[in-house]
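Preliminary data (for renewal application), zinc ion complex.
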Amino acid sequence: MRSYTLGRVRGIAVNVHPTFGLVPLWVLFEFGRGEANPVASVLFGLLLVGLVFGCVALHELGHSFMALHYGVRVHDITLLPIGGVARIEQVPVRPASEVMIAIAGPAMNLAVAVALLPILLLFGVFRGLDSFADYVFYLEQISPGGMLVYLFATNIMLIVFNLLPAFPMDGGRVFRAGLTTLVGRERATRGAVLVGQAIAVALAVFGFWSGEFALGLVGLFVVVAAQAEGRAVRVESAMRRLRVGQFAIWDMGGIQPHHPLTYALRGGPRDVAVTEDGHVVGMLWRNQLLHALNGGITGRTVADVMDRSVVTADVDDSVYDVQQQMNRLDRWAIPITEGGQYRGIFTADRFVHVYHHITPPVLRTRVAAYVTGCLGAFAR
Ligand SMILES: [Zn+2]
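Predicted structure:
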């Protein structure tokens, strides 16, 4: 079944799943029956549900923007009747970045709640509401006030529910990141998967038992997603065992500072190490080379354009560590040395190649699913 694309935000497709068609049917049923003015009631319901899913989409966009900020690719966002999923590329990032990506979703809902709060309080003052129960009463009202209270409650629910430590939900990712700093990523993931699945099973059982089917489905989804992410982390630990030296490309031994820029263009513009007597003395970045082209390159040498900061990795470093280093330094390539001598260059493209090489095809399209359950949002 194909999803329909609603639109794109910063290049990220926001899709609706075909099953989303059930939502308006549900609104028709839930808001239409037994109402004095069914047409107005259904229109109200459609607007309300539209706004609720707007908040779910904002939540997923929060994850997505933060992922883009850390250079992690975002596949797409899909809205489902039970919530939303942002598919974000499964790459090992630092625990701190992972926490930021995970909490960026609930942070969006917090921002919405904070923005609604003064309006809500003002509404309360005008209506003379002075207890929590007074506000709860409005949850079921078909009125602008009812919509306000409902949206506020929905955003609070999105924050609280998603911060449950049920990996791979947001709270579970934060939990895993915390464990990672203590016991390493692979064991942290195993621990988080166990705890997450226990919570998810409890949610699913409680959901189906209490008739909250959305909760039951979210629980089942979390159980399956946790399993898949556990597998993906085993691939990651394989990368820790591979030596980067095996994958470095010689690339003609790099380029020398006195070489003319025209020489650097032979074989196409690319990130290339600058070496002198076999020692790395800097990098000639593709972007800077292309930029220099605009200013005319005749008579200019590599030394005029090169980046003189020297960052290298050792042949015996693991592919994983080098990739982490590249992430941290925001570099696309790192020259590899052995005993101080240049041995080749390791690039982001090379990393993708290695990653594909060791990842079984079933896991290759593995993405981290940032799931948002919006259960109960429809319970009236
Ligand atoms: Zn989330």
